[in-house]
From TrEMBL:
Name assigned to this protein: Pimeloyl-ACP methyl ester carboxylesterase
Family matches, as InterPro entries: AB_hydrolase_1, AB_hydrolase_fold, Sec-Metab_Biosynth_Hydrolase
Location of the AB hydrolase-1 domain: 7-228
Cited Pfam families: Abhydrolase_6
Superkingdom in the source lineage: Bacteria
Amino acid sequence: MSKEPTIVLVHGAFADASSWAPVTLRLLETGHTVFVPPVFNRSLVADAAYIKSFVEQIDGPVILAGHSYGGAVITVAGVAENVVGLVYVSAYALDEGESLGQLQGGFPDSDLAANLVYAPYPVEGADPGTDVSVKIDAFPAVFAAGVAEEDARVFAVSQRPLSAIAFGEPASVAAWKTKPGWGIVSSADHTINPEVERFGYKRAGLKTVIEIDAPHLVMQTNPTEVAKFITDAIADLG
């Protein structure tokens, strides 16, 4: 490839761009061009459309890396013409026509469902929407296991909720059908059942899948390994 891809890191639900910070720093320090745009978590359709528009404004090839719900987002946004690869990190790799709820529902053994909070939010000109977040007192164990206690407490009170409608919206496309992909399974994940990750990655026929004995926020606990995996994926593009 004549020009090295720009790396776009896509965060998931109950988190923001700072969740990628340790990986972002390592990639920047090794000379890569990196962007970590916000995901507004209002709907899969809207979030994917925003990320697709974001990457289409980048000059040259892009490799998308999505964590958790961000995996669903890159599955749809990754059809952008300049996207050359997809990296899934503890993520949902949806099929076309499949929703988060459907994929997650096939492997329900997770600590997340019992620790969710639902709250209304206003929608101009329409009925109120419903925000879904993780109980603050459960957040460190369920979502931020392995993260320093003081950081987990901050993440818990600054989490970005996910609109409930995102759970039921089907993916309009599956970019992994036409773009190469790579995946990391967090084998100690208590947010997404690791079997969800394994199943989705296998179905997508990802080129390389590794397992890290890490919790859901593997970018925080194992940033060097995650950064290397992303740069190895770029090298694999040739």
